[in-house]
Design brief:
The structure holds two protein chains of two kinds. By secondary structure, chain A is mainly alpha-helical. Chain A contains eight helices and no strands. Chain B is α+β, with helices and mostly antiparallel strands. In chain B, a hairpin with a 5-residue loop joins strand 16 and strand 17. Classes of the chains: A mainly alpha, B alpha+beta.
Chain lengths: 192, 848
Amino acid sequence: MTDETSLDITSLLVDWSNGDQNALEKLLPLVEGELHRLAHGYMRRENPNHLLQTTALVNEAYLRLVDQKKTRWQNRAHFFGIAATMMRRILMNYARNQKRQKRPGSAVQVSLSEVAVISYAKAEDLIALDQILERLSQIDPRKARVVELRHFGGLTVQETAEVLDISEITVNRDWNFAVAWITREMGCQTIT
Amino acid sequence: MSDNNLSRIEDIFHAAVDVSPNDRDAYLARVCDGDTTLYKEVSSLIAAYESRNGFFEQPAVEDVFQVLSKSSEQSLIDKQIGQYRILSQLGKGGMGEVYLAEDTKLGRKVALKFISAEFVGDSWARRRLFKEAQAAAQLDHPNICNVYGIEEHGEHIFIVMQYVEGETLADVIKRKALQPDQLLRLARQIVSALREAHAHGIIHRDIKPKNIMVTLNNQAKVLDFGLAKTVQSSKPIDDSSQFSRGGLGPGTIAYMSPEQLRGEDLDYLSDIFSLGTVLFEMVAGENPFFRNSEAETIAAILADDPVIPVGLSQEAMQIASTSTKCLVKNKENRIQSASEVLLLLEKPVVAKTLRKRLVTATPSLAIAAIVVFFLVAILIRYYPSPVRPRIAILPFANQTGDPSVDYISAGISNNLIDRLSFASGLQVLKSTAVSGYKNHQDDPATIGKDLGVDALILGRLIKEGENTVLETRLVQTSDGADVWQNKSTIQITDLLKLQKDLSSRIVRSLNSTLGSSSDLRRWIGETDNPDAFRLYLLGRSSWENGRMDEAIAAFTRATDLDSAYALAWSGLADSYAMKPTVAYGSTNTTEAMTKAIAAARRSVEAGDGLAEPHISMGIVKMRFEWKWAEAEEHLKRALELDPYRASAHVWYATLLTTTGRFDEAIRETEIAKSLDPFNPVAVMSPGRAYYRARDYDKAISYLTEVLRANPDNRGAEYVLGYAYLKKGNVKQAIATFGKIATYNKWLAAAPLGYAHAKDGDFAKARQILKEIEEQNQKTDPKEKKIPSQEQAIIYMGLGEMDQAFAWLEKAYNEHFPPITALPTEPIFDDLHSDPRFSDLTRRLNLNP
């Protein structure tokens, strides 16, 4: 990768941490490429423990993408935040695709190379979760973000606290409440 | 849920969750106090919370991994792509698969590393791949897996590599298949491969036993410069390997350097650390830091010191102790290059016979002689292992209160350094500079650990009554204990005479041990004349303190007394060579040039087997004759004769810089710095090399650090000022040169003028020009002259390029040596597009 790309990412990261949402849109595809690439390597481990690996993987992506000379340490936390958003999007795109392709009763033939990694039911759950999370973010954006970071980004409580610049106690409270709320909303949705 | 009572709902929720389930309903009823909406809201949330199923227990991140890593794998086996028929898959990497293939045109087996289909459209990955191939294809070394090229066929892009048959070093280690001498040979091959890569500016970044193949003939082949990156580009390229499977885990992390784990910018030293883990594993059978989990492994790399197993053979011990030099956590204190690692691995075992000869050669020598003999003998006794102990001799302090013998205390320690480093049982860190730790009060164990040496030699001259006393101590770094000490009353004139006697006797006994004639010739440079010797010491001391005229006087008298005194001739050549510079303020190149060239010739005639004369010759060829290839020959010869001499590395770096080979120059300066950590020039030289390589950020941070440690490093300050200028930080540059002007007005004049001009203050810049003109009109020979090149710099700042070129032309016609920096000195970058620049460069025998 060229210096310019690295510089781009670095300055985008700085812009985004300063609140520029456009910067995020430009960042995401770059991060996605790198995550895809790295995950290939990670998945081949004999004894996968994905939770432990998340930090390592995202950190590696960070090291590869961002010019450390040009950024401060705090930017790593922001990068982890972006990675979580990215991971959520990747999963949701896949789930939607999955749902489209494998509509029950449809005759779409799935090629061998397209063997699903998540079940249809799970894809439906994920889509529901995504929508509810979207609603939660309208009401209480921080709680939605805690869920995104922890659930999709695999961040620990401590890392989440670091990204959001809040205490770990607050992260735990937000998380418990958000889980309760989302679970309730999902239950309602299933009934309807 | 409505917004306004959200926080109330939340508070009650958290409180209620903490209440035991039996009492919860009552608690809720009480708190909600008849507000049924609130009650329903909270209790439904609690019910949901209690009933939450596995959904959140299993983070979605696992699914993300599944999705991310999924790729449409279409087997390439049996396909024909271009001239290659794919035979089987060898492995997978982050960017794609590696296949064994037959090159049907050339009839040989090759390994093809494909870039995955999903990345083919990605111009970024594509560029990285081409860069990787280009970097790797530069390397041609018997211990590096060859990269033949990169090809593109339709949707496929792949790197064509040499197919290496054999097993990985990891398997070899596991099988305990090799004898110690075979291991040592492999170790040397691996290090030599790394040295070659580093020489091309390529960092491997993933040195581990799985990336090293051992062929059927027990030949090491370092594979997969897939992670390699050129120093200039800032990001790694790929992590796939021909045979090993990619990916992290404690197994891979265990070979990473501390700085790699911390995510810092990596340089060669990271590879050196990884190399250390490999070397260690070769003899110990296991990675020194491997633990059950990644976290523990990381902690071990950052904190644990590897423990060398007991009962190793001599060869294994040599590898093990070398590995510990590589495994120093702080990269500053780590052994600084693959070349040095190789030196440690290549040293033959000589200690035992040497000791025997030395003991028989000590009948009735004077005290100073015994000092040196004991030092050698004791060191050898204390370090009977085949591994050469690393020692440092700190500059001896003069505590007599008589500054006129400064040069003697410095001279004794310097001579001791030369002598001991020539005793092959030792590796001597040469700290020739008189500054640094000269009067350092730190305890020796700390200093020794800082320097990474096994033992220290300390000494001081003191007055006791009428007598001058030389006190010498040998201190072991591990516990700070005095291994040996000596206190002897000496007459200064006797001492000088004795040192001469002593050196020739030591030389004789050492040479009879080593039996090599070229080693014998090394000592031809000495003199028989005690006054010449004293003057030589005086000359060196003056030279190191920048008093060139005094140095010239002393060296001239030394050569008058002994016309075959090679070292004095060398000193004279160096002194004349440094005269025509801005710093030393002479523009009369003709006289300096004639005398320097003559002195360098005399020096080489008298001491061809010594490093110093060849350094002098190299300097003269560079500065006056502009014969770059010949200069390189002499400097390389000097390095061959004495690879531990920092000044040889510094001057070689100057040559490399001037001829545009910045990566190699940086490497040389880093070696110089590690060899002579007290020498201000050696210490600042990496900063100058970064600056010349146009890495201004690195130069600034490095030089700032140097100045923090030693505010008197004037060379560092000067280069720092220029780095600020090029970085566009004009205010800082003005401040820095302003400070320099307080102790050397004319040295700072041109850059200060340039900076003011760049700052928009043309009046100040012109004022400086005027002052320079006035100064140059003074006729008193003691007054400094400011070289034409300096005026060119100010005109450049003013944007008057015609004037700038006119003054540069004048500097060229005056044959002013620093004009040779023109093609590569960043300050002249603005001139590059002008044809007059290329013309001047060509006339300097340098490529534009």
